Please model this.
Amino acid sequence: MAEGLRVQGLSVSYGPALIVHEVDLEVGAGATVSVVGPNGAGKTTVLRALSGLVLWEKSSSRQAGVQLVGEVWFGQERVDHLPAHQIASRGLILCPERRRPFREMTVEENLQAGAYLVRSRKVAQQRMAEVCRLFPVLRERGRQRAGTLSGGEQQMLAIGRALMGGPKLLMIDEPSTGLAPLVKQPLFARIREIKTLGIGILLVEQDAELALSMADSGYVLSQGRVVAQGSPAELLADEVVRRSYLGL
Model:
């Protein structure tokens, strides 16, 4: 069953650098929401904060002076204080930017790694079958090393690996980066199909028109702040938003 996400006053800073400033956003249960904006707007940092990775950086002293404030609610539970693996176990799962496969492992091993929190072998097998239905090429490449896949195939693998964790809300970061237009369209068709499974989607994407075309609502980020929000039609019809923030 899908769960809704509510973010209130989210701010993230690294030392004196304020990367995200008082961001509010919502993703209704089963909805698709796109977050768009120029490079360096803080979009990836928002997803890293929601998935617990910023908190991990802070607690592990990987980054000096990391500060995260605000509230993140998933369903009826506040989760911003939880470690990343506990957030993932609740069904709020991140598919990170730049795909990041385990390059020396096979495609099948990468997918199995995505189910590391799944205790039932039967459930893991069912999810594997569903992922291979969505992305048949992953079945065909099952014994192939992930590092030898094309960019588009690696992106499919990254999304498939995230789906193996059983997301109720899947956060996808920049899936079209480095992909040719002919590869992007079938990839986004599969992302649309994920929504039909009852899984909510929070999509961060550089291609604003493509991202908004498949969303129920959207947010525009610039310099770490939400500068516009609304329906895709409203955002794409706003000339100031198009020229100043979306590069259209």
